[in-house]
Amino acid sequence: MTPPLVLITGASSGIGQALALHYAQQGARLALVARRSEAMQRWLDAHAIAPENYAIYCADVADAQQMADLAQACIAQQGLPDVVIANAGISIGVDTSVPDDLAVMARVLATNVMGVASTFGPFIAPMVARGSGSLVGIGSVAGIRGLPGHGAYCASKAAVISYCESLRGELRQSGVKVLTLCPGYIATPLTQNNQYTMPFLMQPETFARKAAQAIAAGSSYRVIPWQMGVVAKLLRVLPNPLFDRLFAGRPRKPRATG
After folding, report:
1. What are the residue numbers of the active site?
2. Among 39, 116, 237, 244, who pairs with 86 as Cys (CB 3.0-4.6 Å)?
3. 179-199: per-residue pLDDT in tens?
4. DSSP code of 176?
5. What is this structure's pTM?
6. Which helix (H) or strand (E) holds 29?
7. Which pairing describes strands 29-34 and 54-58: parallel, antiparallel, or unpaired?
8. Side by side, which strands form the sheet with 176-183?
């Protein structure tokens, strides 16, 4: 049998890279999407992943035309993926009162939200026609409640959670599964500059293993690690005055323009 094909965006670092390594070790074929294709190639060479088991696609997920062209190239070169993981994302602090930060927020939303839709879109009709496939959106625990200084990131991940839920309902009887994965704090470049406590910090290799298990199980929603799922549920039910007091004065995410 032909090994399964897994497409991963944001595959040049962090969670995407960890997922790529995990699936490679499991014998899957890889379709790896990143803007930094040279960095991706160096990493693949360093891990001695056989060239016949992967293809690299250089694209920006925020560019819908690039993603449509990428999908056509992937299907022509490697076939229709079995799993598409929309992982590419950025996290930048914003201050809405600063005009320049509005452009930063627009960039975060374009990458984190529209990037997911642009990644999934070209593969939906072929997967429905085949009657199988998994679309995996990477949300975040940060999408469950808004945190001071994280307005762009929290808003983007809340949108990913709702979007994937909507898509799951639309594809319910098609044979195509939609899974929302919500990481807590994972030790990646995305979190390395955080100036605050990160409870239950998880290594990306552990996250990748647990994420792959959730995908294989056909789950529809999973928080990893599970402890952060409990924390998220507790935060969701906190009355607003108590939640606001709890996070008052908390260090903010560094701003691009500050």
Report:
1. 153
2. 116
3. 999 998 888 766 666 666 777
4. E
5. 0.93
6. strand 29-34
7. parallel
8. 54-58, 29-34, 5-9, 83-86, 133-138, 176-183, 221-224
